[in-house]
Amino acid sequence: MAAEDADDLAGNVVRSHQRGCYILDHESAEILGTGPFSSLGVPASQAPDLSVDPRSKVLTFVNSSKKKKKSFAVSVSHECLDCDGEILEGAESTDADGKTTKCTTFLAVLPASSFMDVCTIKVKNLKRLVLSSDVHHVEDHPAPTTHDPAHTFLFPLRGPSPFLCTQGINGAFTHFQKGTYHAIDFACPIGTPVHAGANGVVVSVKQDSCASGINVSNLFHWNSIMLQYTNINLFVEYVHIQPGSVRVAVGERVNVGDVICLTGSAGFSPEPHLHIQAHLSSAPDAPTVMFAFQCPSGAPFVPVAGSWYSDQGLVQEKT
Question: Rounded to whole angstroms, how far apart are CA atoms 37 and 115?
């Protein structure tokens, strides 16, 4: 269990476990620069979210909004150069059709009225540019610090533990939107059994996607199972699970400790891991709520990135 350094843990995410992905802000060493939107000299009504200069091949993120933050997730299927002209590390990704390619992915949240020159793309002809993107305004969570002590259930993973928490609450990688804000990620081998955290009912199952990796095109091709834990009125979703591994059916009752599925790496997933989030309803736009895991020998715990956990609680704290 290697300790993670402070830079690797910035933003409640273990960045070394997001290979091929770059979480950027105005202080990031890799970027070419940032500035106010007004300096671009373009009317807001004509400003694109993304641009690639035809001469310099510089990729630029643009937020022309005067009030709202904007989230950018962009995958480039060409070599990308940082501000020093060094090649940025990429990683392989498999799409929904089973095709595997290499890409580099950039994630950033830009404040209102700003832009970021991200990288230089090594492509001679922009007509051959291959790029995937997901850009939208950030919806802040309505109650980010609210916690109901009743929202606790058992740790889902057994087997070869402990498990590293690779992203926690408000993680800078993908946990900053209202729909994922309180989610927790654990790195774990593919095929690790996932156990029901309480008695409940199966609400939904999605297990047919074989897409995997860091390409943004995989954002909408995840696998998951949602359970309603009836005694605490909580809808809990387990995401990135192995295709075809669900052992229960929609509407079926489950008991605490039952194996419900196996972990995987389906969807937008830099490595095999389990993503867990909880809601007060099953509505697609329901914000997350904070939850904790029950500990047999102590108080409930909320994992943080960089620390190691098992069904007995904290095993090794981040250093």
Answer: 6
